[in-house]
Fold this protein.
Amino acid sequence: MLPDQPLFYTKIKGSIAPMSPGNVSRIINKYADAIRPEHPNLPKHLHCHMFRRTRATGLYRNGVELEMISVILGHSSTETTRIYATPSIEMLGEAMNTANSTIPDETPEWEENEDELARICGLR
């Protein structure tokens, strides 16, 4: 594959053209339907943009800076990247514990309680 060719493409009468997002989604869902019996938690409808979002979130949760993720995704602004990058419960807990370290003699309510931390952060 040449760098100027699309990753997903169709070849019609010898001519290569980018595959439409709808066609890529159709293929993804076809294979997702085939494996859904073994993976019942797989979302009912998948779309190709989910791969992009999942990759961005994974990078963010593994410590890659938002600015770097923004470059990887080709965003012109990190504000766009912030839509993708959601913190994990562990990241939220670390942030809460760091903020709490300045308050003496107070025991955090979220310590060892993922559900409480998620509730405080508005996730549940």
